[in-house]
Specification:
Elements lengths: L1 H26 L5 H19 L4 H15 L2 H13 L3 H26 L1
Helix pairs in contact: 1-2, 1-3, 2-3, 2-5, 4-5
C-alpha cells in the first residue's frame, strides 16, 4: 500500500510540475522562474506537511509522492547551466540565491503554518 501511495502522489506531482513548467515557458520563455516558483512552493508545502501529524499513508502520498514529483532539483541545475552558458551572471546569482534562500524561508514558513 505504501508504494501505491507514493506512486499515485508522484504521478500527480509530476503532472502538476509539467503543467506549470509549460505555463512558465509561455510567461518567461528565456528564464527559469517557474522552476524557482515550483521549488519554493514545494519547500513551503514540505515544511507545512512535515509539521502536521498525518497518518503515515497520507504523509507518503503528499510529502514523498506528490511533493517529490512536484519539486525538481535536477531541473534547477539544468536551468542554471542555461543561464551560465548565456553568461547571464546576475540571473545566475539571483537564481541560486533565490532558490536556496527562498527555499529555506518557505520551508520555515511551512513548518510555522503547520504548528
Amino acid at each position: 500500500m505504501n508504494l501505491l501511495m507514493v506512486g499515485v502522489g508522484a504521478g500527480f506531482g509530476a503532472l502538476l510540475r509539467y503543467g506549470l513548467t509549460q505555463l512558465g515557458k509561455t510567461l518567461w520563455p528565456t528564464r527559469p522562474w517557474m522552476t524557482l516558483l515550483i521549488n519554493v512552493t514545494g519547500a513551503c508545502l514540505a515544511g507545512w506537511v512535515s509539521a502536521l501529524a498525518l497518518p503515515e499513508s497520507l504523509h507518503l502520498l503528499v510529502a514523498t509522492g506528490l511533493l517529490g514529483g512536484y519539486t525538481t532539483f535536477s531541473t534547477f541545475h539544468v536551468d542554471a547551466l542555461g543561464l551560465i552558458n548565456r553568461k547571464l551572471w546576475p540571473q545566475v546569482l539571483g537564481y541560486y540565491v533565490g532558490t536556496v534562500g527562498l527555499g529555506v524561508l518557505a520551508a520555515s514558513l511551512g513548518i510555522w503554518l503547520g504548528r
